């Protein structure tokens, strides 16, 4: 369904009536792009104004109850712990598409989530979301002279194996937070370096997804370089997509966009640290993690998690994986809505 200006108008009238502090936290959400953000919640609820209104109110209450507006002044300390989180929760920003959308890279297969408590991983994920929405997107919108409110994500499946079974609960928590509180923030997902185990899981998960969700993700051949270069410059390719390059300029040292030393993570960490220090403290003291309430996953998400878990158990029983999947030709198909 296309954009309905009438639905947005009706939704805006309802939202204009909300009380403080919900109105204040919503300003943090829309960053001046009110109608574009109302449209996100409408899309997530198939343009049903009543359902979108309920969804947005629940999101705003979640933000207030969990003090999400202040999460960008809550650094993960000490730095060694933040480094451990970055080494085990592989996510980064590699650049921008030709249309100006931020390109986020996610190491699905090699993320282990085994060096900190679940609360630190959730805190880190929400901080990246908030930095994207409150700093990066407003900046790139201003630079391009038009609203840019979404990003693209490149999901690297390198190393995906049966041990992923132990990560399903945490990934489900993070995905649910995104589904309910950051809906429609990802324009397209690109899956690269996909092994056979991904193909098998995808076949059983795909029928469970809504068409709107399925159409978002493209499963690319191999590292996906050739396809991704159609929408972004070489310098914006995630490091895991740069295999097989030729030419002297392509032999320069490739920066791992997951690393804490990557400019994106340095800028994010310095931003959070600065906002902590402006509260009057010179150096972040050791603190507990920023605990966030975990929303109950929707029925679709629960069913997907159970299906993936069942499929992985089948592989576990068969003791091994068949031949790699990424030798296949590119197929433009689709994965999950928001997250990991």
UniProtKB/TrEMBL annotation:
PANTHER family: CRAL-TRIO DOMAIN-CONTAINING PROTEIN, SEC14P-LIKE PHOSPHATIDYLINOSITOL TRANSFER FAMILY PROTEIN. The lineage of its organism: Eukaryota, Viridiplantae, Streptophyta, Embryophyta, Tracheophyta. Residues 325-340 have a biased composition (Basic and acidic residues). Residues 78-238 form the CRAL-TRIO domain. This is CRAL-TRIO domain-containing protein. It comes from Arabis nemorensis. Residues 318-340 are annotated as: Disordered.
């Amino acid at each position: 369904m296309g954009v309905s200006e009438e639905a947005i108008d009706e939704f805006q009238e309802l939202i204009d009536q909300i009380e403080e502090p919900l109105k204040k936290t919503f300003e943090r959400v829309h960053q001046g792009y009110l109608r574009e953000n109302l449209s996100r919640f409408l899309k997530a609820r198939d343009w049903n104004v009543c359902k979108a209104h309920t969804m947005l109110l629940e999101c705003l209450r979640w933000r207030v109850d969990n003090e999400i507006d202040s999460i960008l002044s809550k650094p993960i300390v000490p730095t060694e712990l933040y480094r451990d989180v970055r080494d085990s929760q592989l996510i980064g920003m590699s650049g921008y598409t030709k249309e100006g959308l931020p390109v986020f890279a996610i190491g699905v297969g090699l993320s282990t989530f085994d060096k900190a408590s679940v609360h630190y991983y959730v805190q880190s994920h929400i901080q990246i979301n908030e930095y994207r929405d409150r700093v990066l997107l407003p900046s790139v919108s201003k630079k391009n002279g038009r609203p840019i409110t979404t990003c693209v994500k490149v999901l690297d499946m390198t190393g995906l194996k049966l041990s992923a079974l132990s990560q399903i609960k945490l990934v489900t928590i993070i995905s649910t937070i995104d589904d309910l509180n950051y809906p429609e923030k990802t324009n397209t997902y690109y899956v690269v370096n996909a092994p056979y185990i991904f193909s098998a899981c995808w076949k059983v998960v795909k029928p469970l997804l809504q068409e709107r969700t399925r159409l978002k993700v493209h499963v690319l051949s191999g590292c996906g370089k050739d396809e991704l270069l159609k929408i972004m410059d070489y310098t914006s390719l995630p490091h895991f997509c740069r295999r097989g390059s030729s030419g002297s300029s392509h032999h320069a040292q490739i920066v791992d966009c997951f690393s804490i030393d990557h400019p994106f993570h340095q800028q994010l960490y310095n931003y959070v640290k600065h906002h902590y220090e402006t509260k009057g403290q010179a150096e972040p003291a050791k603190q507990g993690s920023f605990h966030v309430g975990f929303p109950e996953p929707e029925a679709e998400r629960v069913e997907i998690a159970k299906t993936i878990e069942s499929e992985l158990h089948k592989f576990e029983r068969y003791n091994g994986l068949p031949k790699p999947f990424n030798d296949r030709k590119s197929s433009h198909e689709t994965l999950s809505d928001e997250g990991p």
